[in-house]
## 1
Amino acid sequence: MADVFWLIPFPPALSALVLILFGRVLSKRWVTIQACGAVFVSLVLSLLSFGGLLGASSEAGPLLKTLFPWIRAGAFRADFAFQFDPLAAVMVLVVTGVGFLIHVYSVGYMAHDKGYTRFFSYLNLFMFAMLILVLASNMVLMFVGWEGVGLCSYLLIGFWFERKSAADAGKKAFIVNRIGDAGFLIGLLFLLTVVGSSDFTAIGGAVQSGTIGAGLATLIALLLFVGATGKSAQIPLYIWLPDAMEGPTPVSALIHAATMVTAGVYMVARLNPLFSLSVPAGSVVAIVGAATAVFAATMALTQNDIKRVLAYSTISQLGYMFLGCGVGAYAAGIFHLVTHAFFKSLLFLSAGSVIHALSGEQDMRKMGGLRKYLPRTYKPFLVGAIAISGVPFLSGFFSKDAILTSAFAQGRYALWALGLAGAVMTAFYMFRLIFLTFHGEERLTPEAKHHLHESPKVMTVPLAILAFFSIVAGYVGLPAILGERADLFRRFLEPAIKPAGDGHLSLGSEGLLILASVAAAFLGILISYWFYIRNPRVPETLAARLPWAHKLLTNKYFVDEAVGAVIIRPLVRGSELVYTGFDLKVIDGALNGSAAVAGLMGRVLSAFQTGFVKDYAVVFLLGIALILGVLLF
Amino acid sequence: MSIPASYFFILSLVLFVLGIIAFFVKRDLISQFMAVEVMLNSANLAFLALARAAGFADAQAIVFFVITVAAAEASIGLAIVLLIFRRKKSIRTADLNSMKG
Amino acid sequence: MMIIVFFALAIMCTGSVLGMVFSRNQATSALLLVLAFASLGGLFGLLGAGFLAVVQVIIYAGAIMVLFIFVIMMINLREGISREKRAWTIVLSCATALVILGEILFAARGAVPEAAGEAGVTPTELGRLLFTKYLYPFEITSVLILAALVGAIVLVKKRES
């Protein structure tokens, strides 16, 4: 039953092809059925494959299927081949499941958009690329998917390309990603020279047999992680993700919350033997993750655009995932990836529902009191906020707690503290968002108020489904306090992910840590309540008291400006200089110069053509003398 | 004793060189044309002398043809000179440079 | 005895050509050339080409040079044309011509056979040659002369305006 896994990417691929080629002549109804249907087929195939895997033994190793031989160059082979193991199963379920729900949601959200067919063709194309990424059995093919999702991200961020800000955002995303990809490629090349193949099984074997030394492993791991920072928006390459909110909200939900940005985490988890081998690399991953988690959370505290808050939140949560992987708790990182996919896409889609209801308004300062008008949007949104804040019994609590506990167990107390601080801030800004949008006094413009309406079922039903999963998904990964065997998730992933690090905690310590997480969550919620419901004046006074802090946060620490000044402007200036100094002067000069030389030669030679026969005769004579001389001597 | 062929040959060489010098010294078309005729004749002489020394009996026929063709060429050439004179009212070569450049 | 005739003819020929070079008057040059070609005809006769000698005198000296004189008279220049003014051209061309002379001499040394060969070809034999071995050139040359004739007339004909 699991043998069907290699078919999973192809229904969306086929659908995308049909839509790209014939989309113009297809009816909207057909496009809807085809696009959503294709993803649904992939979802069914994923479920079947997953079912097949459940019954299989864990010693068998991954299922492999080579579709066709692709690159054969001497001893180097990279085939178009898929592999299926528990990690891949988890990923395809998330991608196709959440993907399907978002496709359905988009039917409602994009219903009035004139680029409806184009949107679905890109969305399907994205699904194809992402599925290739997670199913690839070698890194070269994974890189194909990696780049493919980057392309679709560009196309979808800049979907409304007539808006300059959207087009710029698309470019920014692609270029920053590219910078990460450079690191990825270099790491890949090193890997290839050492291991000789980019197959994951070969890499695992090379680590086990000791072919890769620890030093080289560190180098490769760090380079690959550079790629992950680009794709998964960590420090320093996160700057594209907030701007990516220019795209339609379903895009933000699918690509920039649930799937594409998690590709970096997936890559680290997939290469866990390599990352475990190198302790410094793991530390770097964990530190960057923790730092990003906190850094992004601070920026989310003061944002006024509802989608920007969620964007920074995504960056922050991705930091948590990397924190988990960095301390060796790869399963915990993936666990958080799964739960985050549910509640973050839920949050984005709900935000989209709010924006749709307000006819495009995204500024929270112009919202408020929407609770009574949009109940079917408010309830799922609240569930998502509670989940992400780490309130017990919802999924976010279990996954975040798993990460923080592992960090503490490894003795990384500083990282644990950072994570905890981040959790407080997460709860705070999420509930700030809730209070500003749905509670309190109404600050709507009369226009918006007039058109206020709840979203159609096709949009609210996916919200409900995602809310359901945001609640229950956590129960597959119960903490060790309830028994060693309770962590079904980690056990399921064991064939693919060998746990690293051997921190063990007593049950008492673990209980205390859980208590700390819970306390952090409630602290954040309470402070937010105080600030925005009880004492709405407090934020303003605080901002007035610490103007510089407020300015720093609201302007995102001026990072974009810094990048512009330090990197972009010198590059542009340098390019201009090179253009005028070298391109125009030297290259054009050489070309024009050679033409000028030809002209000059022509003029010189035509000076010989005086028109006088006698002059020509002189030349004849000299020529005869010369030729005779050459012939004779 | 017959006259050695080399004497004729040297004579023809001298005539040829004189023809060349005449071509460059003269400034009008007709005289230059006459110099060309001198050169032609010197070539005829050389040919006949050397052919006789080498035992090539057909040389006379060939020289016959040369003379004939030279005659035809001279008539056409002179016709052209007349035309040029009609057009430019001068046969000084210094005036004939419309093919310049 | 023949040597003396040779040298006489040679000196006459060279002398007249030299005279042609130095003369300023085209008519004088033409007449001098007539003399030169006539002596050349004599030299042809010395070489055993009797028929050719006569042909040379009749055609070259008699017809071609007469043509030249006709044209000179038609052009009717009042004053003679002075020699080339640019001295360097003369010097250069003289030098080059002498260089060529030297080269040809050098090439030809030892290559000129001394044997005198037969006494010559009689007109009969020449005729036979012309009509057998060299028939094609003969016929074609006659067409050529016709073409030259017609061409000359067409070229110089005054337009009927």
Note: Chain A is about 75% helix and 5% strand.
## 2
Amino acid sequence: MDRGPGGPVSDVVHGRLRALLGTSGVERDQAGLPRAIPDSADALSLVCRLAHEEGWKIRVEGQGTWLPPDAPADLAVSTGALDQVVSVSPADLVATVQAGAPIEALRRRLADEGMWLALDPPGRPERSLGSIIATATAGPLRHGFGPVRDHVLGCTVATGDGRLVKAGGRVVKNVAGYDLTKLQVGGFGGFGIIAEAHLRLRALPRADVTLVARGMRDALTSAARDVMAAELVPAALELLSPALAAEADWVLAARFLGTDAAVQGEVRRIAPIGNLAWQPLPADRTAAFWGLVARGSQGGPVTLRLGVLGDGVDDTIDLLAHDLDEGLLSAGAGLGMVRWTGDAPVERLRAVRRAAAAREIPMTLERAPWPVRRALGHFGAYREGVGQIVGRLRDTFDPGQCLQVALEGAGE
Amino acid sequence: MIVSALVEALGRIVGVRWVRHRRAELKTYTMDGLPTRESYPGVVVMPGTASEVREIIRLLHLAGVPFVARGAGTGLSGGAVANADAVLIALTRMNCILDVDPVHRRAVVQPGVVNARLSEAVAPLGLHYVPDPSSQAACTVGGNVAENAGGPHCLKYGVTTNHIVQLEVVLPDGSVVVLGSPHGEPWGPDLVGLFVGSEGMFGIVTRITVRLEPMPASVRTMLADFHSVRAASEAVSSVIAAGIVPAAMEMMDRACVAAVEASIYAAGYPTDAAAVLLVELDGQPDAVEAEARTVETILRAQGARTVRSASTDADRARLWQGRKKAFGAMGRIAPDLAVQDAVVPRSALPDIMDRIAEIRDRHGINISNVFHAGDGNLHPNISFDRRDPDVAARVHVACKEIMAACVEAGGSITGEHGVGSDKLEYMPWIFDAETLGAMRAVRRVFDPAERANPGKVVPIHTCREWTAARGAR
């Protein structure tokens, strides 16, 4: 039977979803694919259970701004109606959000109450929190505030067969049971669909100063090492390629957040480092500058991240420049991590992954069209034994293989 | 029971002197830091190398025998205790620091390395290992990984899971996997994050790569005393709301201060105060100076009677002494100490302290509170004599009521000590049958036969059944 959008299977799926969610809970995408829009975690789990029982393939969609909604499937499940900031507790610095909530909406709500979420992920401001958590895409603030996993206290997830798992909790310190939240953060939806998350917040810092220095790449990476050696504590220390920064030279940006005294002290101490002309950005340009960095990671169809140590950043950029190009690059120049955005054939990307693995550097495919994701996988070049564990975990959380997520590539 | 042939086989792997099986020899291993769970293991084996661990696990896999990994035995949830049908694998001989990389601020250690020894070893490089449980002078990094241990300085720097980047693990079938990467970026899904805190039920770590942090340039410790626990709790929230994240914020109540001041660890805490708050700030000297002024203003505005401040190592050590030795000081009160562990949202601290006092009075028991106030992690410590069955029963009921109150306040049953065997019965209070089923199913991914530390963490009878489509992928 024709499984394509608008075909007879598609009509059956559409009809069954409408019976489950009502007419307002289902629509068709532009190609005619039925799209379920559950408005609660329970409804989300019902959709997954139905798909599991029927053997239908699910593609998950958030705001549609990061991973393209292009995986072949029998139905799309959108978190578009799960877009509420459920609760915010200023006294506890904890927020509960639904997965489809755009990060910008949360940001505005928190700022009104003197708080913020210390994450500046790549992508557009309307990107959903579910997408950010599922892909574990942290931005430059990773330097000072850690990866995405450090901000997620717990989450509710619908598994591929429609079970609802409530991992973690709402408190900042919690070791009750196994830490299932960690599996969902950066799991790319392969272990279930995130419905809701509890996030750790911070009080808005009094001072927020960004300084930029321009120059040759090696001079900047050397300066970044000096910043680390001098034990400065920037919130971000990001190296940006000329193309990403839209400048003639490479740029090293240091962002300091905290109390006025702390930030002013850091600004004084970075001044002599690297013999660079550190220029403070005007306060009204800081947000625009970091917004540019975030959006820059969408200047091509493919985004990679490589987990490299700080002093391996230069070599890793050389590797990328050699095998791919030096296009849109940003790197945590202090604690490591390189993000590359561009376009390249799968074979070249695979070669980079192999070369990186040989250097003990994991490469994650953060974003790409489905054919690239399917061929390359978000992950790959595992160490011995890891692939079996990941496979068994997927069998556990998605026994019917309903979730169309290419954790590993077809060609691995 | 463990058959003698197995004891002999273990002896052939590690040498007979590293196998203990006589009852008197086993006595040491019948408990951890929890006084209410006692059990003799079948046999204790002490491997000296990772390859011996692999051989032992392989042997036990073939024989179908359960095992329990144990570090220094300082755990507080009855997690490192084995039954007579199980082999207890003591990892304290594996205490080598294998590599220190000051440039990348990493160290590679064996699981038996004592937490404080690691910080001492890297101190000449200006580095330290941050997670600092109160037992750090004795507890091992391997045990810290199993429990996802915390400590006072986790308020600013995070718990164990935030400091582990890579693990070499012997799975319960004897195979070896390396999880994570030297950078800390997961290699695939975050299996290091999943493994840390799994309480010895996913396998045994034989090699741990940890993150090290530079010693702060300047540290200021402040001690404030309050006329009520409520005022002190509110001061804690006010400091955090001001955008200041102290390295630590620790509170002690009147009973705890009294115990400390009556002991050889007396730190000069005011015994008439209802609560004493320790606040530690670290960072660059000018920033610490400015933050200290702000914190002092906040503390006084919230009703602190006095605020003492120390910045020299000796003075700071004195202020900390009472806090660090509080558990020891409580040993003077009664033969047994149940160090409890629970978490509440910070805003619930004042109310929960009132509830604990009410529970204490109603059951006529002795509770001293010393806790990580900054992150709402409570340690109500009950001094008692477990030889008196009536008292022991009341302690059990009181513990249960305290846990229920914390859960009711939106908290958790453990912040850093783990579930072990002590808190199994509370797990269904915070996790539904489906989520508990998921935990069990994940455990079976690593340990299909459920032989690693059996009977801990997940109360199997309350789990909904999960059956993975085996080998579907």
Note: The longest helix of chain A spans residues 8-21.
## 3
Amino acid sequence: MNGSSESEQEVINCRVQIESKPKKLIHLIKYSSKTLSNGLKVLVHEDPSTPLATLNILYSVGARDESPDKTGFAHLFEHLMFGGSVNIPEYDSPLQLAGGDNNAFTNNDITNYYLTLPANNIETGFWLESDRMLSLAFSEKSLEVQRNVVVEEFKQRYLNQPYGDVWLLLRPLAYKVHPYQWATIGKEIEHITNATLEDVRDFFFRYYCPDNAIMTVAGGVKADEIFALAEKWFGEIQRATPSRMPYPAEPKQTEYRELTVERDIPYSSLYRAYHMCSRLDEQFYSIDLLSDIMSRGRSSRLYNTLVKEKKLFSEINAYSTADFDRGLMIIEGKLVKGVEMADAEKAIDAELNKICSELVTKEELEKVKNKVESTMEFSEMDLSGRALNLAIAEYMGDANLVNTELGLYRKVTAEEIKASAQEIFRKENCSTLYYLSNRKN
Amino acid sequence: MNVPQAKKYTLDNGIEVYAINAGFQELVKVELLFNNVDFDPAKPLLNSATNRMMSEGTKNFSAQQIADMIDYYGSFYETDENSDFCSIILYSLNKYLKDTLPFVSAVLDEPVFPEKELAIFKQNNKQRLNVDNEKVGSIARKKFGEIIFGSEHPYGYFIKPENYDSLTSEDLKAFHAKKYSSSNCMIIVSGLVTDETIKVLNRFLGQRKASGEKIKTVNPKFVTSKQKQHYIEKEGAIQSAIRIGMPFFNRKHPDYAGTAVMNTLFGGYFGSRLMSNIREDKGYTYGIGSVIVSMKQEGYYFISTEVGADVTNDAIREIYNEVDIMRNELVEEEELEMVKNYMLGTFLKGIDGAFQLAERFKSIYLSELDYSYYERYVDKLRTIGPDEILELSRKYLDPAHFLELVVGRK
């Protein structure tokens, strides 16, 4: 608080009154858990204030589990999961009949399914999820259709959008060995169009098993009833104990890399990928706060210096991929028309030098921690968010992280942030993609 | 199904506050709504630009200082603009509301619209717009609005990058004085709302009586295109965006609830006729749907999708096939039951939690309806039968009135 200039006095004074010790979180996410004999982990968070319930199933399978010549499978699989399971011809109808609604996502690490229903219909969810864990109805027709759907998704999101193929280029630049080198959608469309029913069956039986899954249920339910339902519907499914080779470790990057491409887009953009630790590592919290100080919101450094003051970028962002293996810190931005790439890069480097050589201020650090806390509180408003957070915490090894993670953020010091910055923001650790506009004028 | 209702308060300066108190998280969302000033096609961005630029500097605080303080307290400041009204939104933990509201108050009362910030705003928004207009889906969305409502109407005007050039600081200041008076303001607060919350709102938002009238937005009559089919070619497009639809009624119409059920069956959920055919059977697309859009003064209806360019015509043909089936075949009881249950489940989600309840209140308030609307809606969901679905399909899903737009390649 000392040493602030006069013009900032009015603003700074307000802050003096803020307590910097966090108030004890009054509303912890309470839950109970049980593991079935086949390895399925079940967690229940009761919330009697809502008539709804969310059932979330997280499978430990993602793009990183694919082989390099058969990519895009985990995601294709997510689509196939809706094509019918052995006893139920079609997934959505019964759920919709029960007033429910569902969705799923796949990333490099996990595939997550969730459905929300009126709580008194929750058994429908158990029936559906257990049957498709038991076995999908593998049919040529279902595969054919979903292949086409995924191909359309590939086109719509990655090929037919401006800047759509950035990650198809950036990943293989940053990763030469580790499976993170390909995106969840797949390396190329052909991998998807060539997928056979046999390939698909193998993938399913290896990964879609109870001992590779975490189920969380949140809402207007009772824990003992949920455990009973889990036993009833999932208890008989055999464990498979997926044999998993350790993922090939990415060798430490020792040299700067770059790639330049031209595209028919209106403005050039810049993407830098720096290697960092995994989401599970203690260091993650300091890196997450580092990226917040750099670019979260309109009070952030990069926004105010590079967008507002120097007008070099129309938008700029710094964020971590938060992968479960060693991930990336990304700095990406679109250049303002007429700006030279060299000037843009010089300005970014100046900001990186600053954050590597000077400690962040007490106010900056306090601010981003307060934001983390309030974000957690706001996210608790949503039932499916709570179910997902519980599943991810359990996946990380400790479900109670939903309650303790804030403390881990609060503990981060300015020195730790500086040390993380110095470790990450080295040129030899950087892969840069220059994504240039080929338009004249 | 009981929909918890908003409770009304009035601040010292006459501003009406509608409060939804629900949940146990100690936070609130404060949304201030202002009716739009009548649309001027010569200066089409005034409503939205003024709303967005207010936080870019006030008499006593720079844009950065405002952002700094709002962020420091873990709050979130957002704006929302549409063709009927604009909002300023603050999400705050209750314990810091008295610290963050003064900044919202300053933004409302004393914005400066600095030239420097305006220049950056123009430049960066033009860039964003140029990128957006590369996407077939975005072009289709905007062009379709123009086809239905015409280019002189706020619902139809297709914003171009050049429109940003005509913005001036003076215009924005004058516009702000006209629009952001206490008479033209309504507040919705939702979350853990106590008497203390209302007191804090009154202290920071209820004292200043800015001059200006309550605005009753007057729109010109809209003009729908006489041309039935429109095509915008985009070189090298791998997919085409398709929009098919027409002007329609809105939430106020007595047939709205029944037609919503008909529409859900047709194209409003994952198991719909359109999805089952065009995505799940043919694999032409990643997604297809249909929707009734209800605005304050009008409405419109459309079916939309992005399909592989080479199956554009096939997809259109299948859409019309599904329309035909809706108009000629009675839906089976079982399928209708599924749609109804799905809609009831969705409704249940829509009244779960303070923020959802605030949205439900906003919808009826802006349509000048009361909570009985929801009783009638749920009643219709429960009781509608196949005969009425057929009747509504014949009445309202009429290809003779459709306008078609394709953006991409066919």
Note: DSSP finds 16 helices and eleven strands in chain A.
